[in-house]
Write a structure and sequence with these properties.
The chain has eleven helices and 14 strands. By secondary structure, it is an alpha/beta fold. A nine-stranded mixed β-sheet has the order 5-4-6-7-3-8-9-10-11, with helices on both faces. It has a three-stranded antiparallel β-sheet with strand order 12-14-13. It has a two-stranded antiparallel ribbon with strand order 1-2. The chain starts with a helix and ends with a strand.
Length: about 350
């Protein structure tokens, strides 16, 4: 983490820049707004400039990112932490970032709660709320794609935003009359959001929720709720999935433009997810009903003479289930009782 003097210099440097210092990496457009086809030989001989990297090894400026997770995965905290990191040019979850202005559309939290979370996250990093994080508090407003189309491009240009964060996606979807399970509906909405950001040189990050059910039994990119287009849209499909360890999650990233990033685990240390490379990210929390233990499971653990307590402990069968299995085995004549002990027959 940069020292205080370095942080102040970085803030002063960006504060003195104009929008022109953050040029969008977009092609020249025709009068109708569409680019002309380009010969492959010309394209490769004079390739377009590579956009600035916002998150090292993860996200380019002009790219798209979907962060999805279940309820209580602290997705908003995660996005605020990412927004603050990029607006400060400091690391996020172990990834270096490139300092750039960020526009965050807060559609869910009350204004005071947003301020509180930003303050606590910055305190945890030993920094101050960044001047280049621009928070657009829109809770209570109908933020449809039509309203965004009229307002968002000008906001991006005036701020010179390198990243636009929309939290959460379902608010825009609902206000726009979208159907979450429709590929056509979501494809059109995501395409429109991407257009207004990428054509103005900004990356776009959205938060979304998991579908119901056991997330560990699905591929990471298929855990987001709703239409399949969610798994295909983002240049970065980041998922936050419960780990078998309490207060821990596994982060997985499917990347379109960068080399693969290995899954990693994080622990919740309020108000942040903190990377923990000692945890095995493959150990996801399993859902579903508890395992049903049969009488055969119980009898296999009965060795010699054992008290009921010793037998139950050796079997690993929960106490209430163990008593039923024990009585079944007695009734079937597979086990006999001798005083306070039991043994196989």
């Amino acid at each position: 983490m940069a020292d205080a003097a370095g942080e102040e210099n970085a803030v002063n440097e960006i504060a003195g820049m104009s929008v022109e210092d953050f040029p969008p990496a977009t092609p020249q457009l025709c009068a109708d707004g569409w680019p002309e086809p380009v010969r492959a030989s010309d394209l490769c001989a004079n390739p377009p400039p590579t956009p600035a990297v916002l998150i090292d090894g993860v996200l380019y400026r002009g790219g798209t990112m979907l962060i999805s997770g279940p309820s209580k995965a602290h997705k908003t905290f995660t996005l605020i932490d990412a927004a603050c990191a990029i607006a400060d040019g400091r690391p996020w979850l172990g990834f270096m970032t490139k300092l750039a202005p960020v526009l965050m559309l807060n559609l869910e939290l009350q204004d005071f709660a947003t301020a509180n979370r930003i303050e606590k996250i910055c305190d945890a990093h030993g920094t101050k709320p960044p001047k280049e994080l621009h928070v657009w508090n829109l809770r209570g407003h109908s933020v449809s794609i039509v309203e965004l189309a009229a307002r968002l491009p000008d906001k991006i240009k005036s701020i010179g935003a390198g990243l636009v964060v929309i939290d959460p996606h379902y608010k825009v979807n609902s206000a726009s009359g979208g159907e979450e399970n429709s590929n056509d509906s979501q494809g059109q909405l995501l395409c429109a959001l991407e257009k207004h950001c990428s054509l103005n040189g900004s990356a776009l990050a959205l938060s979304h929720h998991f579908a119901k059910g056991d997330a560990s039994q699905k591929n990471a990119i298929d855990r987001a709720s709703g239409a399949g287009v969610f798994s295909r849209w983002g240049d970065v499909a980041a998922t936050i999935t419960p780990h078998e360890e309490p207060d821990a999650m596994t982060v997985e990233m499917a990347l379109r433009n960068f080399a693969p990033v290995h899954p990693f685990a994080v622990r919740w240390q309020y108000p942040l997810w903190v990377r923990d490379d000692q945890l095995d990210p493959a150990k996801l929390k399993r859902g579903g009903a508890p395992k049903k233990h049969s009488a055969d499971d119980a009898v296999k653990s009965l060795e010699g003479l054992m008290t009921s307590t010793e037998w139950q402990k050796a079997s690993g069968v929960p106490d209430s289930s163990f008593r039923r299995r024990r009585d079944e085995l007695l009734d079937a004549g597979r086990v006999e009782r001798i005083g306070i002990h039991y043994r196989r027959k």
